[in-house]
Design a protein that fits this description.
Elements: H1 3-33, H2 40-48, H3 69-92, H4 95-98, H5 102-111, H6 114-123, H7 136-165
Helix pairs in contact: 1-3, 1-7, 2-3, 3-5, 5-7
Amino acid sequence: MDNVVLLLVYALVLGIGATIFMDIYAVLNKKLFNISSLDYALVGRWIGSFPKGVFSHPNIMQATPVKYERAIGWIAHYSIGITFAFVLLILYGLEWASVPTLWPALIIGIATTVFPFFMMQPAFGFGISGAKTPKPMTVRIRSLLTHTIFGIGLYVAGLILSMIIR
């Protein structure tokens, strides 16, 4: 199979697998500790506002809802996971999928925390790294932990993929 096709297929499998892993973590957090995760409808509201030229909000929760925002948000959530898996494979090579190791996956997972800290949270009106939220340190720790879990999910998905491709 062509390397470009392999890259795309592996990125799809790894990204979807890691995102599912992260979502399972979020469900367990809610069920066991009553800790809610990000409502992806807010992501959809943010993205759905782009065609109107609106890229940031004073408070995304008070912004006018957008048609299909929940679906847009969930599609974006999984697309972003696939994109980060693609980056992992570009940086560490297709060979990583054959013999996955934890550190590259963790590095990618932790590095992706840059996006909520410096792009999404400010655009949602929450400030850089959640500085304008009632508990900024809690927001930061939860974001870092969630993205670390995503990195572990990349590794677990990599282990499963490596068993399939052998």
